[in-house]
Write a structure and sequence with these properties.
Chain A starts with a strand and ends in a 9-residue tail after the last helix. Chain A contains two helices and seven strands. Chain A is mainly beta. Chains in contact: A-B, A-C, A-D, B-C, B-D, C-D.
């Protein structure tokens, strides 16, 4: 409830990291979304600002992402947006850093840019195919990389 | 402006039809979205209502969809929603039918359900990779199948 | 899960109907969304297609809507989209009608078009302010007007 | 094109600032969105994480917001999301700060929380009611407060 859903159309900016955690596997990567603007004067489209997000994907989606997605590929990412302000590595300075995360609920290669051969993963091959972000378990409100490495805070994916 | 954007997560319900039109190729298929509900009493998820949409995809996206997508496959579909009320085949009766269309802007196989091998289509292989629904040309407000076949109205994709 | 969220920006097309049901009060009205298109040739915006939706709002939101909203007013409506295909009044013919519903989760007057004076309703004045569409109770998959009047089916809001 | 649309449901966290710029009036405020989670164990809803955004609204929407909205009021905000990473005040350190902005296209008081009396602003009373974010003019990719005050960078709205 009150979840902020977003759909991002853009490109994978860093390779997909994957790790196992006590609550299941999780994938993480940076994602770039570049606005396109219609230039009235020139009568043509041009690139606008690029926004960057950190995408997290759990369980089956995380595992399939790690097996399917490479840097530079175009994706459609649908999930929950969350803005976190946290003390970073430099917490001694009392400074806060801002993280813009998306907990992915569905992700696919954008067929506007190419073709894809899909292979269904049979239930049972993965621990669960129940979708991340089902919203009743409280969600993950910290970066699992940071949690796993605590108390030594991990630098955010740059 | 005032466009109603939707992101549908569901399954392809009919095979992808593809045809050339004077303004470029277009693909069309029916798409099923089934809500999942948390049943408090049973403590488990169960299927809810299924909504059906007709998805249209133009130019590069249409061609790549036709080359990549089969009935039953899980997709993420992002695009513009439009509700049309039109006289159907039975126009002699003065009855109107309601069509719920999505003009797709980005579509991908849902990696929650399986893996995918992506192959980028190099620009120039297709007429244009400029995304459908760029919003400045007026959009398509009729089903191109109906337009192409007029005056004999085509039955909607069931 | 798999809910299709939409945000509609448009105008109230019919007066708000309100009724009490065993599961709380519910408001219903028709809502019109008109696309605006940039006409490259004329260098100006023009009206495009108008889509119509039936909006349902429950409990506190329904009661406040009934108290605040008149025909013609501009609103922002955020909620869950559902397409229902049902036998209508003419079920003897075996024909199906399509209904495009939005279960509203948040609604406000669009301040692009005017000003508004807001008055908070203190909790306790209404049965509950818990938001409709919290997603765990199964949702409402039929029009409560039809359910209330069953077995005599009510004509849809035209 | 490729715009990331979001709909935020939450509360105004700072008073609305308004200023005139060469391209029209603009309003700015901070906005807080608190997730609500279903706690299976307790069988009740509880507050989750709070995300903060900076909302910008131009022309008629900005002026009407400034005239209608106070700190603490509940709103529905629909607009374009943008993540900016910029050198802040402390640029001498070579550090970057992250800003999460929404360019509002439609905003209203959330009637889930109270009632509202709406008054339409007649066209002509304001310079233009054409909606901000019409997408063809290139958009605003910097905070107008910063631009107006350049080269002395203004601290972000805290």
């Amino acid at each position: 409830m009150n979840d902020t859903m977003v759909t991002l159309v853009g490109n994978v900016a860093t390779s997909v990291e994957y790790r196992e955690t006590p609550t299941g596997g999780v994938a993480r990567f940076r994602f770039a979304v570049t606005a396109r603007r219609w230039d009235r004067e020139r009568g043509a489209w041009s690139d606008g600002h690029t926004s960057f997000y950190t995408v997290f994907a759990w369980r089956a989606l995380g595992a399939n992402l790690a097996a399917s997605v490479s840097v530079g590929e175009p994706l459609v990412v649908h999930g929950r947006l969350r803005v976190r302000e946290e003390e970073g590595e430099d917490r001694q300075e009392g400074r806060r850093r801002t993280f813009v995360d998306v907990d992915a609920m569905a992700v696919g290669h954008d067929l506007t840019r190419g073709t894809a051969a899909f292979r269904r993963v049979v239930k049972g091959e993965t621990r669960t195919t129940e979708r991340q972000g089902d919203g009743v378990e409280g969600g993950v409100e910290r970066d699992p990389w940071e949690v796993a490495d605590a108390p030594k805070a991990l630098a955010p994916v740059a």
